[in-house]
Design a protein that fits this description.
The protein has one domain. It contains 3 helices and no strands. α1 packs antiparallel against α2. The mean pLDDT is 87.
Length: 69
């Protein structure tokens, strides 16, 4: 949810920078400066969709046997 909210806000701000009342004359520089704000939320969203439990570490065989007993 954090990634989608951050991505939404950055896209709204970039929309204003591109075609709004306060459009920038230096569009390539603005896009380059905001690139991390676009890529990092996309990475967070990708990580959450790819793994069902993104914050857990895989257990070893002995840990798995202890849990199943």
């Amino acid at each position: 949810m954090y990634g989608s909210a951050l991505l939404t806000v950055v896209l709204v701000i970039l929309g204003e920078e591109i075609g709004g009342a306060h459009a920038t004359p230096q569009l390539p520089m603005v896009l380059l400066a905001n690139l991390p704000w676009l890529l990092f939320p996309m990475y967070i969203i990708y990580r959450m969709w790819r793994y069902p439990t993104p914050f857990t570490m895989p257990g070893t065989a002995s840990e798995l046997q202890t849990v199943s007993v």
